Amino acid sequence: MSGTPASGNESPNGTVTAERHGSVLLVRVDDGKANAFSVPMLAALDAQIDEAEADDGVGAVVIAGNDRAFFAGFDLNVIRGGDRAAIGELVSAGGAMVRRAYGASVPVVAACTGHAVAAGALLLLGCDHRVGPDAPVKIGLNEVAIALTLPDWALTISKERLSKRHLQRCVANARLLDGAGAAEAGFLDEAVAPDAVVGRALEVAAELAETLDARAYASTVRALRGDVLAEMDASVERDRAPAD
C-alpha cells in the first residue's frame, strides 16, 4: 500500500507521520510500543488534523496505529506519578483530541490496527467510522478495573456513541471486548481481517471524501454534534483548571 508522504512530527514518545492517498490523509502513529497517549504525541496528531482541515484537497482523514495497537491509554507513568498539573495537562490534551476528532470539519476514520484500551477506545468513539480487526484484541474502557475514574468528557462521548445496551458493561463494569464484540457494543463499525484494516479504512475514507460535500458536512457536524461538543469543551476546560 503506497502513498505520497505528506509530513511528520517526531516527539520523545513517538512518531506521527502522514501520507496522501488521493483525497485521503493517512496519519500513522507508532511509538514502538503500545502508542500510549503523551502530550507531544497528541500535539503532533492534532497538527495533522489542522493540516487536513486547511487543505481543500483533503476530503477525509484516516488515523492508524501500529501493528500492536491502535492506542493504549494515557501514559501511566504520568497518571500515577502524582504530579497533579502534569496529570491534568495530559488528561485535558486527550479529551481535546477526542473532541477534535468528533468535531473535525472533515470525516475522521479510525484504522484500529490492534488493541485500543482506555483513551485509545475513547478516540475510537470520536471517529466517524471505525474499522478494526476481527481478532482476539482488547478494546474497551478498563479504567474502573485499574482504580481510575473516567473524566466527564469521556463519559459524555461514551454515552453518545456506545450502544445503550452495552453502556453499563463497557463503562462501569470495565469489560474489554474482542473485535466482534467491540463492533456490537459501538466501539467499532466493522471488524475485518487484521491485515485488511488499514486498506478498508482507506476505502471508507475515500468514499466519504468523494460523496460528501465539504461545507455541508462541516455545518452538519456543528448542528448534529454541537451540544455534545460543547459539553466536552466544558469538561476539558475543567480538567485544565489549576488544582486548588
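The record above closes out task 2.4. Task 2.5 opens with a second protein, given below.
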Amino acid sequence: MRSFTLPLIAALFAAHSLAKTCTVRPLGHGRSDVSQIEAAIAECGQHGTTVIEAGEYNITRKMQWNLANSHVDLHGKLNFVFDLAYWMDPANTFQVIFIQSQSSWFVITGHDFTIDAHNTGGIIGNGQRWWSWYGNGTRLDGDGRPVALTLSNVTRGTVRGFVVDAPPFWCNAVADSRDVLYDGMHCNATNADPTYFGQNIVWNTDGIDTFRSENITLRNFDITSGDDCLAIKGNSTRILAQNVTCRGGTGIAFGSVGQYADLPDYVSDVVLEDVTFVRPDPQIQPLMEHGVYFKSWTGTRIGFPPTGGGAGGGRVSGVVVRNVKLDEVTTPIQLYQTNLGHPGDAASKLQFANLTFEHWSGTAQNATIVDLQCSSAAPCADLTFEDIDIAAPAGEDAAYNCVHVASATGLPAGACGASAVKRR
C-alpha cells in the first residue's frame, strides 16, 4: 500500500485540477448554447481547459467568463443572435466600461488565462442588420449598442487568433486591466447593403479601445472599420501595438480625452510600430481619414457624459509612432483640442507633449501632411519628426499647419512659420 505525504497529495491534486478538460459542441436546431458554455466555464475555467469545438453557437443572452489559471480553445463561432430591442435594453447587457456608459454583451474577467481562437474562432456580431437599421440616422456614444468582446478587470490575460465578424459597435475593449496580450485580432466591419454603398454606415466599429489599463500589448491586428482602428483612451499607460493593418475608417486615435471635468486623463509610454493604413474601395468604405490623430475636448463643459462633457485636464506624453505606411490617407498626422466644441469655448488645459513620429512613407489625399491645432492654454511641446516621406497629391506642395506649438523639430524649415514653432 502506497502512502503519500501531504505536500505530495497537494501537488497531485493541483495537477489533477489543471488537467480538467471540458468540451462543448453546438446544440444546433436553433437552440441557445449559453447555458452549456457557462457550465463548462464554471467547471473548467478555473485551473482547467475548456474546448469549444468548431461550429456555430447561438448566444441569446449576455455572457461572462471568469477565468483563472486556465486555457480556452475556442474553435467555434459565438453567434450573438440579432434582436435589437432585446440587446438595447440595458438590463440585458453588462455596464462595465465606465467611459461613455458603453454596454457589453460578452465580458471576460479574471487572471492568468489564455483564450486561443486559432484564427478561426470568435464572434459573429450580425452587424449588418444593426447598421442597415440605423442607416444614416444619428448615432451617439453610449446609445446601448453592445461591444463585441470586453476584457474587464483582467490581470495577465492572453487572447490569440480571434476573429470578430460584423460587430455592431466596438469590436474590442480592454478596461481596468493590466498585463494583457492580444496576439492576432481580425475585425471586419464591412457594409454589404447596396443602399448605402459609397457611405459610411459603420460608425463606432472601433478595432479596440483601451481605458484605465496598463501594460497592454496589441500584436498582429487586422481591422476593417468605419471608425477608429485603435483608440487609446484616458489613463492608458505602457501600450505597445505592433504589426497593425487599418483598412478604412478614421485611423488610430488618442482620445478623445478631457471629457470628464473631475477625472483627468493621463496617457503615457505608448509605442505604435509597423502600421499600415489601406484605403478600401470607396463604394464599400469612403473613409481612410487619418494615419494617427490626437483629440481632446475643449476647456468648457457643455452637458454631461456620456454624450456631452469637456473641461477635463491631464496629459498625453511619451508617444512614439514609427514605421508607418500610408495609402491615400486624407490627413496623415493631426492633433486638435476642440472635439465636439463650440465657438467661444475656453481653451483646453490638457497638454500633449513628447510625441515622436519616425519613418513614415506613402501618400496623402490632402496637401496638409501635418495638422497641429494645439491649445493656447497648454501649447504642445517637444514634438519630433524624423524621416517623414509622405507624398501630397500630384501638383501640390506638402503643407504643414502648426497652431500653439511650443517646440518641434524635424519639419521642413519654415514649414509652420516662426511664430508658431520654435526649433531647438
